[in-house]
Structure formats: structure tokens, C-alpha cells
């Protein structure tokens, strides 16, 4: 259930006094810290992003040349392997979605003050794995920054560019199946935004551990689907709450429990897999340009722009296919949530977590 208070963490939900622009690195298990409240502005306008069209996403998508690999629903294109075979991944796989993923990459880069990761990487780790690489934008950025690394980006769908750097390659595979990579091999494993698709986090993190080299770093980068709010501006029946409740209900039907997501959830899975020195970095990303402080206002504006197609991208297939909602009702819920966000009256935000761990030097898989 979405709430007006932060979701549970490993420690008290105390807020710190001053407003950190970035995350709070937290080395100890019980001490995960949460950034303090974001101050609201009188106006939710942001100069570069102040229009609010009624249409949330274009329903006319260009046809792909690999038409047989795709299925079409709700005016969107989905990859057959991910959306049709066993509900493995229910977001679209069309140009609108790939643009949104690249915009979200920018959102996360800004959130992390320009950094691609929080892991204490020194030099170029020789073998790097990017799980669920999407458009491959993170893998390419990493490969460019670390020319001495060999980066493999893996995804269910081949949505990556055919052009790539010599040290970056893309593979198509299902990471919920038995990994075919070498064991004890990768020096850094990165996984961003797989929360709504991974069913078995225990197995997923265990495979990460088995295929990580001794001393390797691992990093999960995840976000909360539900909205949080630090003041009383978000009512219990907010459209944001209705949207995220319906999403959580739908995903539970395929064994994805987004209501459980918290720093503790991800920390415990990494620990159970065998990783040590876990650090959690917690961020708040405003949904909309309601904050006063420039950085948060900008972040909120980018988040809002990504949400223009994001609510529908996340929800249309789960809500129609798994909850049995009509396409019209599901779309209305998404449009309502987006319009509500653009109004800027509810000071809501999503959590973003970076969870970093290390495989002990002495332990093989
Ligand atoms: C929300 S996108 C994130 C993309 C990328 N990591 C980023 O942050 O830009 C999730 C990606 O994970 C991929 N994915 C989901 N489940 C997967 C699985 N079981 N195996 C491989 N890729 C998967 C999807 O196809 C999609 O491209």
C-alpha cells in the first residue's frame, strides 16, 4: 500500500537536519539514513518543462522491421520474448520506451551527481556485467569511462545499438535462467531497474555471487514504484496511490512483490548470497517540479517528463492483462496519475536506492 510516510528501512526513518543534495552513504546495517524533507516551492512550474498536454503517450508507434519479434497491445509494441511468453517483462519495447529509458538514465545520472555508480571502483575492472542493459546506455557510458574494461550488457530484448565501443558487447539472454557465463569471472556486476521483472531475487543475487570474481563489486540500482510524501499534501486516495496500488496488485499476480522493496530487502538478498561490506545509498527523486531547491526542481521536472509515457509504459499490460481492467480504465488511471503529478500540489517523490556489496577475496563460488 502506498503511504504518505517513507517505506520501512533498516533503521529509524529519522531525517537529518540539513538538506543533502545527494545520498547518504551508510556502511552499517541498522543505520540506513534517509535524506531530509525536500522543501516545496509555491509554484510547480519549471521553465523548460512547463507544458502539460492531455495526451500522455503517443499511441501511434512506428512499425519495427523485426515485426515478428514483437506483439502489439494498447497501442504499444512489446518484445514477444519478454511480454508474450511468460510475462517476464511487461514494459514496451518501442521507440517511445527506449527514449524514456535514456531519459531515465539522465535522471539517475543527475541524482547521483553525474556518477554512473556508487561502488568504490578503482581503475578499470577487467570484466563487467550490466544486467538488463536496456538500450545499453549505461554499459556504453561505463565502457567509455573505463576503456580497459570489457563490458557485457545482457537483456531479454535486443534493443541495443549495433554500433558499440570495442570493449562493450551486447548479448540476449534471460537472467532468471541458469547463467552461462564463467563462474568467479566478473569484477563488477551492475543491475539497474529490474525490480518489476525479477521474480526470484534469492536466485538472481546468488547467481551474481557465483559469477563474481573474488573481491568483485556488485551494485543494485532500484526505485520505489509507490509515491512517498513528507507532509500532508498527498491524500490517501491520491491518484498516485491508486496507480501504485493497482500496479503492486497486478505484479503480485506474477510473483513480483514491489511492496516489499526497501533498502533492507535488497541488502538482505546481497548478504544472503554471500556479499559483504554492503552499503546503501538512499535518494529521493521528486515526482514533478514542486520542490523549491533548483536541483530537486530539475530532477522533478525530468521525472515528470519521463512519467509522461512512464505511467502507461509500466501499467497498461499489467493492469489489463493481470487485473482484467479495460484498456480505457487503465489508461484513465495512468492519465489521472500523470495529470495529478503535473499539478504539483502533492509533494510526492519516489525512493531511489543504490546498494553496493563485495564478494570476499577468500571465497570461491
Ligand atoms: C527498466 S529497464 C532498465 C534498463 C537499463 N538497466 C537502464 O537502467 O537503463 C529493464 C530492462 O531489463 C530487461 N530485463 C527484464 N527482465 C530480464 C531478464 N530476466 N533477463 C534479462 N533482461 C531482463 C528488460 O528487457 C529491460 O530492458
CATH superfamily: Vaccinia Virus protein VP39
Q: What value does the Rg take, in angstroms?
A: 20 Å
Secondary-structure content class: alpha/beta
Mean pLDDT: 86
Q: In angstroms, what separates the terminal alpha carbons?
A: 38 Å
Q: According to CATH, what is the topology?
A: Rossmann fold
Share of residues in helices: 25-40%
Number of strands: 11
Overview of the molecule:
- The protein has 365 residues and is an alpha/beta fold.
- It has one domain: Rossmann fold.
- The protein is 31% helix and 19% strand.
- It contains eight helices and eleven strands.
- Strands 1, 4, 5, 6, 7, 8, 9, 10 and 11 form a nine-stranded mixed β-sheet that branches. A two-stranded antiparallel sheet has the order 2-3.
- α3 links the parallel β4 and β5.
- α2 runs antiparallel to α7, α4 crosses α6 and α7 packs antiparallel against α8.
- The longest helix has 29 residues.
- It is globular.
- The two termini are 38 Å apart.
- It binds S-adenosylmethionine (SAM).
- The site of S-adenosylmethionine (SAM) has 21 residues, from α2, α3 and β5.
- The site of S-adenosylmethionine has 21 residues, from α2, α3 and β5.
- Keywords: Methyltransferase, Transferase.
- It comes from Ascodesmis nigricans.
- It holds the Pfam family Methyltransf_23.
- InterPro entries: SAM-dependent_MTases_sf.
- This is Methyltransferase domain-containing protein.
Amino acid at each position: 500500500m502506498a503511504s504518505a510516510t517513507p517505506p520501512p528501512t533498516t533503521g529509524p526513518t529519522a531525517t537529518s537536519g540539513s538538506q543533502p543534495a545527494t545520498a547518504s552513504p551508510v556502511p552499517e546495517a541498522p543505520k540506513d539514513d534517509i535524506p531530509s524533507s525536500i522543501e516545496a516551492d509555491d509554484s510547480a512550474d519549471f521553465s523548460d518543462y512547463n507544458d502539460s498536454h492531455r495526451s500522455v503517450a503517443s499511441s501511434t508507434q512506428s512499425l519495427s522491421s523485426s515485426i515478428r519479434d514483437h506483439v502489439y497491445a494498447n497501442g504499444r509494441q512489446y518484445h514477444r520474448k519478454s511480454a508474450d511468453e511468460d510475462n517476464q517483462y511487461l514494459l514496451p519495447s518501442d521507440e517511445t520506451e527506449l527514449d524514456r529509458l535514456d531519459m531515465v538514465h539522465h535522471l539517475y545520472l543527475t541524482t547521483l551527481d553525474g556518477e554512473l555508480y556508487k561502488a568504490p571502483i578503482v581503475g578499470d575492472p577487467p570484466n563487467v556485467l550490466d544486467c538488463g542493459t536496456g538500450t545499453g546506455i549505461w554499459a556504453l557510458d561505463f565502457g567509455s569511462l573505463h576503456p580497459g574494461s570489457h563490458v557485457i550488457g545482457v537483456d531479454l530484448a535486443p534493443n541495443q545499438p549495433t554500433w558499440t565501443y570495442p570493449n562493450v558487447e551486447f548479448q540476449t539472454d534471460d537472467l532468471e535462467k541458469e547463467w552461462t557465463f564463467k563462474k568467479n569471472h566478473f569484477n563488477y556486476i551492475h543491475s539497474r531497474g529490474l525490480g518489476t521483472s525479477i521474480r526470484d531475487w534469492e536466485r538472481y543475487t546468488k547467481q551474481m555471487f557465483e559469477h563474481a570474481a573474488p573481491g568483485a563489486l556488485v551494485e543494485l540500482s532500484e526505485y520505489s514504484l509507490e509515491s512517498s510524501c513528507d507532509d500532508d499534501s498527498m491524500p490517501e486516495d491520491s491518484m498516485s496511490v491508486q496507480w501504485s496500488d493497482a500496479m503492486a496488485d497486478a505484479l503480485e499476480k506474477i510473483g513480483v512483490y514491489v511492496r516489499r522493496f526497501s533498502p533492507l530487502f535488497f541488502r538482505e538478498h546481497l548478504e544472503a548470497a554471500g556479499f559483504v561490506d554492503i552499503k546503501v545509498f538512499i535518494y529521493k527523486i521528486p515526482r514533478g517540479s514542486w520542490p523549491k531547491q533548483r536541483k530537486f526542481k530539475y530532477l522533478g521536472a525530468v521525472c515528470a517528463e519521463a512519467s509522461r509515457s512512464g505511467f502507461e509504459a509500466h501499467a497498461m499490460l499489467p493492469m489489463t492483462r493481470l487485473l482484467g481492467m479495460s484498456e480505457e480504465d487503465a489508461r484513465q488511471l495512468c492519465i489521472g496519475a500523470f495529470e495529478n503529478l503535473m499539478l504539483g500540489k502533492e509533494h510526492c517523490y519516489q525512493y531511489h536506492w543504490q546498494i553496493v556489496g563485495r564478494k570476499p577475496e577468500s571465497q570461491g563460488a
